[in-house]
């Protein structure tokens, strides 16, 4: 049995990774500052070793990786608008903390580190789908910070021989995604608004598109990246390979929830990209990855979870 460290494991995606690892009988440690995550996301899991701490503190990073075989580095403040409002705080979480985790992993002899990269690195490059060989064109501090940490991963592989794989996620959604802040993922915000009978806001005309990916697919891609021999030092998209407009998403959520409200429209947000769709051929070649849960099936599961977790208050 290996020991896995999930940084940011009390967050949305990290808690799903921890759950999958526990399900496989692996030993799991989580380190999380709880800046956006919650202890309750891990409450259903037995035997997870939890460290509360900020990875921007190198001593926390060293304590967290001690004795660890594989690091799944998920910790970040994952919001474009928040990074525009407060770039320094985002930088500390997304870059400083990542460098600490890499240094601690290198010094502790970790076998592999798999990093949660972001499709935001592609920016508004006009060609679709986005292929890993395209140049980065970040449009926000968040996108730049995620890209910088990805570059650090590759540098640590080249300079120090630490095995790293950067997986670029594209708009992940699913149970436990937190809808409680305006910075939250759009699907969780739509579901919450419709559940509470409010009108959700669509920024821009709603024709912007995203490769919405159900979290189970991401977990599968990341766990494959922990072991795939030819993935070392690579950047790999993990998504569905499709794209759906926000207007289409809104109508799908509304139909599934049996709601009738219309959305509000507001000005486009700075830093948001127009269209995003992944080329997933590299993930298929190097990881044997294929998405197994469709957008529609994932949406239905997410709504079902949300309704069970947040019953309507009469
Ligand atoms: N959700 C998406 O669509 C998406 C898309 C692309 C990339 N990502 C990346 O995936 C990762 C996980 O995102 P998520 O959606 O689960 O977000 P999340 O906010 O639910 O999880 C991030 C976790 O990291 C923790 N954290 C933040 N800074 C920390 C620090 N300095 N030290 C320790 N813990 C810290 C937070 O408390 C939280 O639990 C992030 O790296 C994010 O950038 C997410």
Write the layout of secondary structure elements.
Elements: E1 3-7, H1 12-23, E2 27-32, E3 49-52, H2 58-65, E4 70-73, H3 80-85, H4 87-108, E5 112-118, H5 141-160, E6 164-169, E7 172-173, H6 186-195, E8 201-203, E9 209-210, E10 213-214, H7 215-225, E11 234-238, E12 244-245, H8 246-257, E13 264-266, H9 281-287, H10 295-309
Parallel strand pairs: 1-2, 1-4, 2-3, 4-5, 5-6, 6-11, 7-10, 8-13
Antiparallel strand pairs: 9-12
Helix pairs in contact: 1-7, 2-4, 4-5, 6-8, 6-10, 8-10
Commentary on this structure:
- With 314 residues, this protein is an alpha/beta fold.
- It has two domains: 3-171 and 214-238, NAD(P)-binding Rossmann-like Domain (Rossmann fold, 3-Layer(aba) Sandwich), CATH 3.40.50.720; 173-210 and 242-277 and 293-309, UDP-galactose 4-epimerase, domain 1.
- The protein is 39% helix and 16% strand.
- The chain has ten helices and 13 strands.
- The protein has helices at 12-23, 58-65, 80-85, 87-108, 141-160, 186-195, 215-225, 246-257, 281-287, 295-309, and strands at residues 3-7, 27-32, 49-52, 70-73, 112-118, 164-169, 172-173, 201-203, 209-210, 213-214, 234-238, 244-245, 264-266.
- The strands form four sheets. Strands 3-2-1-4-5-6-11 form a seven-stranded parallel beta sheet, with helices on both faces. Strands 7-10 form a two-stranded parallel sheet.
- Helix 5 (141-160) links the parallel strand 5 and strand 6 (164-169).
- Helix 6 (186-195) packs parallel to helix 8 (246-257) and helix 6 (186-195) packs across helix 10.
- The relative contact order is 0.14.
- The structure holds nicotinamide-adenine-dinucleotide (NAD).
């Amino acid at each position: 049995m290996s020991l896995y460290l999930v940084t940011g494991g009390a967050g949305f995606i990290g808690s799903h990774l921890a759950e999958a690892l526990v399900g496989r009988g692996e030993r799991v440690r989580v380190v999380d500052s709880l800046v956006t995550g919650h202890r309750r996301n891990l409450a259903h899991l037995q035997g997870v070793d939890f460290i509360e701490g900020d990875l921007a503190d190198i001593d926390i990073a060293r304590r967290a990786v001690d004795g660890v075989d594989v690091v799944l580095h998920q910790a970040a403040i994952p919001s474009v608008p928040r990074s525009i409002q407060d770039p320094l705080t985002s930088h500390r979480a997304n870059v400083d903390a990542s460098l600490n985790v890499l240094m601690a992993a290198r010094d502790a002899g970790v076998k592999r580190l798999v990093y949660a990269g972001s499709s935001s690195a592609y920016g508004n490059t006009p060609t679709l789908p986005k292929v890993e060989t395209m140049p980065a064109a970040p449009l926000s501090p968040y996108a730049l910070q995620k890209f910088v940490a990805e570059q650090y991963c590759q540098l640590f592989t080249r300079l120090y021989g630490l095995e790293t794989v950067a997986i670029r996620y594209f708009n992940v959604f699913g149970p436990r995604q937190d809808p409680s802040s305006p910075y939250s993922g759009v699907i969780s915000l739509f579901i919450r608004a419709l559940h509470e009978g409010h009108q959700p806001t669509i920024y821009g005309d709603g024709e912007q598109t995203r490769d919405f990916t159900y979290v189970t697919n991401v977990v599968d891609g990341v766990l494959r990246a922990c072991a795939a021999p030819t993935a070392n030092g690579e950047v790999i998209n993990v998504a569905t390979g499709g794209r759906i407009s926000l207007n289409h998403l809104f109508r799908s959520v509304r139909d599934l929830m049996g709601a009738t409200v219309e959305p509000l429209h507001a000005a486009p947000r700075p830093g948001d990209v127009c269209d995003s769709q992944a080329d997933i051929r590299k993930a298929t070649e190097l990881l044997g990855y294929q998405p197994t849960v469709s957008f529609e099936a994932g949406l239905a599961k997410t709504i079902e979870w949300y309704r069970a977790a947040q019953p309507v208050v009469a």
